[in-house]
Amino acid sequence: MLNSLSGRFLILTTVFVLIAELLIFVPSVARFREDYFLNRLERAQIASLTLLADDMIMPELESELLKNAGVYNVVLRRDEVRQLILSSPIPAPIHKTFDMRDPPAWMLIRDAMIGLWDTEERVFRVIGNPVQDGGTLIEITLPSAPLREALIDYGIHILILSAIISIVTAGLLFLAVRRFIVKPIKGVVDHMQAYAKAPEDARLIIMPNAGVTELREAEEALASLQTQLTGALKQKERLAQLGGAVSKISHDLRNILTSAVLFTDRIDASEDPTVRRLAPKLVNSITRAVNLCESTLTFGRAEEPAPRLTRMSLAETVDDVIAGERLAVGDHDMSFSEDIPMGMNVRADAEQLYRVIGNLVRNARQAIVASGKPGEISVVGSENDTFWQIAVTDTGPGLPKAAQEHLFKAFQGGTTSGGSGLGLAIAAELVRGHGGRLDLDRTDERGTRFVISLPKSDLTLSPTIV
């Protein structure tokens, strides 16, 4: 109970209310003490009027008047003459004099607190102004015990009232906090616990309905987070299913392609010049397809395999990519160009770099074909002291805005209608595996340009040329 939000709020409320009542109690007691003195002055003045009306009064009457006024002596100053009007024996010397003619507030509070805690029997002199212009000054002497008793009695009543107010206020605040704050927070916690048991169930996403602004903002943030998480979990599940299906397909396709490799050996023996020229490229393509199936099976079990870095001829790889894409163009008006410096050898995995460039060129070809307009695709190689760079440029319609926002994300960054976005995601992952990066240099109505940057590091490289 005490560790709960409402319990702690109840304790804090009670403490703060008591502090507030204490701040009220101190000046209230000081005010009561001032009123007590002024009341005694007024009573003493009224008692003195009897003597002023009749110079000779009986001692018994004088004693009764002083007793009713609650004082020992009354001194009245009239017409610049100070006169002892009523008097009786004083049991002790005067301890202190209090001037009630416009005293400062801090002095009233100080004297009240001192008098409240002083248990000794004292005699006080009090000076004040007579009421109704009954003179210029009035002085009285009175005992301290009745004053202290009255202060204590008044203080007890104030404390009891404060306690009642504190209890009632704290109780009302406790109920209000439980109703308007604790209950909605508990509802959010219940939603979170229920959602945690089945995060894939979209029905468990919280519906913001809190009336308190801060709680509603928290509910909206939680709803957004749950929506994103549910979508991510569903996508993860789809990806897992897709990975399993791709692994099965790759397994069977690998067997089929292995058989196809055997047939290419006979094609190699053909006397037809065209067949003899295209046969090596067909063999390379089938070999790459077999390797890709092997990599896909590996990927289904873990992650994309680490690249086997060697020195390789970039021109040969680019030539193979463009040769394959030319065959896929068909009757569309499209041209290809390549500008790779002679002898430019890069440090990369030949199969993976072929896939990277192939994905970029293929995406460019598909974008131009989908636009229905003529186009051109170029692959340009360059290098500096830090990087080898390969730029793939097309004159297509540019990337859609949605594709730009989710670039390199599988199933979100598709560049064409019906595209999955896997090509760019795979290309980016493969380049990162080389320690490089794949950047979108520009995309607009004039076309798109991607740049592959492969680092030149000090790692020991194999001199083999692929």
From TrEMBL:
- Signal peptide range: none
Enzyme Commission number(s): 2.7.13.3
GO CC terms: membrane
Compartments it resides in: Membrane
Keyword Membrane set for record: yes
- Molecular function via GO: phosphorelay sensor kinase activity
Do you know which Gene3D superfamilies this protein is assigned to? 1.10.287.130, Histidine kinase-like ATPase, C-terminal domain
* Coiled coil (residue ranges): 215-242
Primary subcellular site in the record, as a coarse category: membrane
Keywords from the named record = Coiled coil, Kinase, Membrane, Phosphoprotein, Transferase, Transmembrane, Transmembrane helix
The protein's annotated catalytic reaction(s) are: ATP + protein L-histidine = ADP + protein N-phospho-L-histidine
Regions that span the bilayer: 9-30, 154-177
Name a Pfam family for this protein: HATPase_c
Domain Histidine kinase, residue spans: 248-458
Q: This protein is called what?
A: histidine kinase
